[in-house]
Amino acid sequence: MMESAEASIRPKPSRTALAFVVAADLAIGGAVGFAVYFAKREFGPPTPPRNVEASATLCVPDDCAELAAATTLTWQPPAAGSEVTTYVVRRDGEEIGRTAASERTFTDDDVVIDGRYGYDVTAIGLEGRGRPSPLVDVRVPIPPIEQAHFVGDYSVELVFKRIGLLSRFEGVQSPAVGDRTTQDWDLLSSCSPLAGACDVALFGYELARDGRDYEGELPSEAFCGSEHLTSKRTVMIRLTKARVIGRVLVVTAFAGSSVVDFRCGGNDVHAVAAISGSRV
After folding, report:
1. CATH number of residue 61's parent domain
2. What is the pLDDT of residues 209-219, one digit of tens each?
3. For 190, phi and psi rounded to 5 degrees?
4. How far apart are CA 59 and CA 55, in angstroms?
5. E strands, the chain, where?
6. Coil, strand or helix: which one is 26?
7. What proportion of the chain, given as a percentage, has pLDDT over 70?
8. What does pTM read for this prediction?
9. Which domain does 161 fall in, by range?
10. What is the pLDDT of residue 31?
């Protein structure tokens, strides 16, 4: 017995159904392709390095062999972009160094005390160079005034506070209390400016340093009547101001006294002149 023709006939899929099946197949294949693509895609150059920070240090004798200034930068890797191969460090817009991808710190020792600098860091990756990080500013600290150096000529004013029996004191004939005179002093530190502050030479004689104070004995130029005093005069000065010149902190002002103790005509005599000096 023959089966009915109706039972063996299957309807053909419509064009719409075929289109849907093809689209589904493409979507599945496309999803797999895009997944592979995005898994391998690096998304262009690296974004800027993050959390860039700059700090400055100053090492002074006796902690260091000599005065030494430096700045140090640290940063974190970019948040996105291709794998980093190199970091570029710039100071004030000029490239000063590069580091490997594994190094995220950089020290710049080509700086001066009291110098102000602006730094940025750029990452270079497998797909090119990224944009620089935001600028960070840093200032190198100034050494304490105790580290200041005497350099060259200073104009010094002396005001007589006490005279005693002197007929000549600090080059002034018949001096009186309140009189003033000026002198040119050539003050030179006896060590290198970068080696830290030290004793000072004045007219060929030494003023010994103790922090910001200096003291020494020089031949007396005082007279009592016609007698040239054989006693010494004691010069004491203290640093009051300093200024950075190049890589050195230079003394720009000081104050102190010039004192002579002596005997004249059988009497003990004391003379004092107040000192104020400034760099010429």
Report:
1. 2.60.40.10
2. 999 999 999 98
3. -90, 10
4. 13
5. 50-59, 68-76, 84-91, 94-100, 105-108, 116-125, 128-129, 136-139, 151-162, 168-169, 172-173, 180-189, 200-202, 205-210, 213-219, 223-224, 227-228, 232-245, 248-264, 267-279
6. helix
7. 85
8. 0.71
9. 145-279
10. 47
